[in-house]
Write a structure and sequence with these properties.
single chain, mainly alpha, nuclear pore complex, structural constituent of nuclear pore, Delta-Endotoxin, domain 1, Nuclear pore complex protein, 2 domains
């Protein structure tokens, strides 16, 4: 959480019109060709980071709200008429609060789904992948971006799974056909690992 907060703090210092200013300055000097690859990739990286931070913030909002469901009131003894009336009033208030909470949760669920999918299905090649390459590839940059993908994309996938499961949207996790293909791929990978003398998860077999 602290790393995400630090990243948001740094990101917030970048002027909102930075990308527009880059394009404006480039066209202002009479350039009709596309931006240099380095500049274009930097803009794409900026969009990738923004999409990820927005997805993480949306999940934080969803998790905070999903963890604060209204508590069902414990009924008081119903020996007296006034106590029965009080029980009914508390129950009505609870049902009203629960309805409002559920409605808000549905809105937040749709929002976090959309924002996580924006990262997982990032346009034009994928998240944290440069569209253009210079004549000489920056191996350090490529390594860092690959490390970010291997760290962030699986994490977001698990967050999305948590959202769908905890919102009782199990049917949205996988369709039947997707689940069949997924299990088939797992089977193929496990068999390949067994052929190499490893266990089905890729670890060395213990004697």
């Amino acid at each position: 959480m602290q790393k995400h907060d630090a990243a948001k703090a740094v990101f917030s210092k970048v002027p909102e019109d930075s990308m527009r200013e880059i394009y404006s300055q480039w066209s202002g000097v009479g350039q009709t060709t596309p931006l240099p690859a380095e500049d274009e990739n930097s803009i794409r990286e900026h969009l990738c980071i923004r999409a990820y931070l927005e997805a993480h913030e949306a999940f934080t909002d969803w998790f905070s709200h999903s963890s604060s469901a209204p508590q069902k009131p414990a009924p008081a003894p119903e020996a007296k008429f006034t106590e029965r009336v009080a029980n009914e009033m508390r129950e009505k208030e609870y049902q009203s609060s629960l309805s409002a909470w559920s409605g808000r949760l549905d809105v937040l669920t749709e929002d976090v789904k959309e924002r996580i999918y924006n990262v997982l299905l990032f346009v034009d090649g994928g998240w944290m992948i440069d569209n253009r390459q210079d004549s000489e590839e920056d191996s350090e940059r490529s390594h860092q971006m690959a490390a970010l993908r291997s760290l962030c994309l699986p994490r977001l996938s698990f967050l999305l799974l948590s959202v769908l499961q905890n919102s009782s949207r199990h049917q949205e996790v996988f369709s039947k056909e997707e689940l069949r293909r997924f299990l088939q791929k797992l089977r193929e990978s496990s068999l390949a690992l067994l052929d190499r003398g490893l266990d089905p998860l890729g670890y060395e077999l213990q004697p």
